[in-house]
Amino acid sequence: DQQVKQNSPSLSVQEGRISILNCDYTNSMFDYFLWYKKYPAEGPTFLISISSIKDKNEDGRFTVFLNKSAKHLSLHIVPSQPGDSAVYFCAAKDSGNTPLVFGKGTRLSVIA
Amino acid sequence: ETGVTQSPTHLIKTRGQQVTLRCSSQSGHNTVSWYQQALGQGPQFIFQYYREEENGRGNFPPRFSGLQFPNYSSELNVNALELDDSALYLCASSLWHDPYGYTFGSGTRLTVV
Fold first, then answer.
1. Is B107 left (phi over 0), alpha (psi -120 to 50) or beta?
2. What is the pLDDT of residues A19-29, one digit of tens each?
């Protein structure tokens, strides 16, 4: 049973346009949500996060939106740049000392 | 501030063999988690170590075992390797109780033939 789902394996976007990556979860106990970016031959690097008490968090070109009632979050990248091309993982955890639960990832390609 | 270092970066083993993967934590971190990332999948939690004891385990058989040392570095041991163990093994260090501060290493790519 997959608790964190990223239903789009890949996404292709023109440079300068908005990229929207989606993530759904099933565990209502999740309190923390994180997005990681992963380049080939590197480990995941933290991008942005949001806690369940908020519905939006913004950091530069990156914004994460959380809809708790729908158990859905999304990552918006505006404007998209070729260097954003990577695999993006959505991850979640509850408030205890439990591990991060990851989705399968979405491969973003930003075309110049 | 040093990051998380994993060794080796790649290795090839034969089915039935044993392997040990190593991870050094980021300075100041006291918790280490190990994840397995199979091709096309997201990282799957194997186990977590805090204060040199296993504190949480995912759905992995006992032939996956680990250690954490007093300097917070860690080892992942896998016995009786199977072909399906071929994957990228990621180590992440963090501070106990910090939900956001995970730092991942670049991983060890294990191929079992």
1. left
2. 999 999 999 99
